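Structure in, sequence out. Go:
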């Protein structure tokens, strides 16, 4: 599939990216551009979403497991952690 085909507008009427950058930007402004510009309102929405997600312990454990796997692939970082651990004794 070519880039042009990927970028062409879809027949879907859903919100979000359908090859139209303006439509993608508008999808993030459900309450209108005025609401999207109110940083405290958007922060409150994010805070409530995070609180809701954090109640699901299985989901949070999965996030932690994936994060740990990703971090542990950085050998230099893991080596640095190990050195600091050895120095603290």
């Amino acid at each position: 599939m070519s880039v042009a085909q990927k970028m062409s507008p879809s027949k879907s009427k859903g919100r979000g990216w359908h090859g139209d950058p303006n439509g993608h930007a508008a999808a993030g402004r459900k309450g209108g551009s005025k609401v999207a510009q109110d940083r405290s309102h958007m922060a409150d929405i994010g805070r409530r979403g995070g609180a809701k997600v954090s109640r699901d312990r299985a989901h949070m454990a999965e996030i932690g497991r994936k994060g740990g796997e990703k971090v542990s692939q950085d050998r230099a970082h893991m080596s640095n952690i190990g050195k600091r651990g050895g120095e603290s004794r």
